[in-house]
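Quick one: structure for this chain?
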Amino acid sequence: MKLAEVLEALSLAVDDPEMHNKEVEGGYCSDLLSDVMAKAAARSIWVTNQVHPNVVAVASLIDAAAVIIAGGMKPEEETVKKAEELGIPLFSTDLTAFDVVGRLYALGLRGKSRNG
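Got it. Here's what it folds into:
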């Protein structure tokens, strides 16, 4: 699935056309960074409520397709800058993490972890 399809379904805007063609192969939802580092699979969309710069570092480490910050939380300015530097698509939404994951599931995305 292309990231553009996900963004449209969640009403998330992106100005960078290159991101539209980025492949998304699954999803992962967690606020525990060590859990994400240990289990999240590459090319997954990571759903979290965390807003600090370490989110971008972890997303880069796991080769995340994108990060969606849910629950109306806004990323810190440093987080946004780091995401831009590393080319990590970073979005925020007022939807709860539960609702984001539900919509991703309805699109056909399934949870994907390194463990299976």
